[in-house]
Amino acid sequence: MIPEFGQLQWALAIVSAFCIGLAKAGFAGIGMVAVILFANMFGARDSTGVVLPLLIAADIGAVSIYRNHARWDYIRRTLPAAAVGVVIGAFLLSRLDNATFRPILGGLILTLTLAQLARMRWLTSTPALPHSRTLALSLGLLAGLTTMLANAAGPLAALYFVAVGLPKFEVVGTLAWFFFLINLFKLPFSVGIGVVHPSSLMFDAILVPAVVAGLLAGRWLIHRIPQRAFDAMMLIFAAVASLRLIL
Where do the domains of the chain lie? Predict the structure, then answer.
């Protein structure tokens, strides 16, 4: 059953779907707008099931657009740990409210953002740290956990791929494939928990055109933004997202 929304709620839902497409086209932190708005409309737990099919639709478009830019060496480093994080997150989501987890997640993202700012300022101090296998596994685990609990791992994963020095199109292509695979892996868990169901899918189907519009707008924008500005935007989005989660 499609929710009985007023005009303002439908407008916010369309904006949220547009932001999901924009995020998948390369502006990861903007996806937090959709996470927050849908959480307010449906509740934190149920909103994860509303957002997930929209994310998968956007993933398909992003993979099609940026399929030649993915760095599979970094995907292989992080994906197995992310899958473990999804399983842990599904266990917690089926039993716990994630309200207490959100400020913890925000603190983690903010800490990583500040660390990356420091690294950009004093690059020679810890040049090998972002490339360590331990960090890749840790961030993969956190990304899987947070994407299952709150669909909020985009800024976290983007921060890692920026930190290892990938050019902007490789960041976008790697994120596209990483989350496409992870979101497909999440889907059976979300169905089993009961947050994805026929009613939520009918609602999502109405919003797919807004997702496509966001993808196309993001594709147009990313070709016009220099690398340094792109890196700075990723850090700003991550910082704003983390503060919103903490507050």
Answer: 7-246
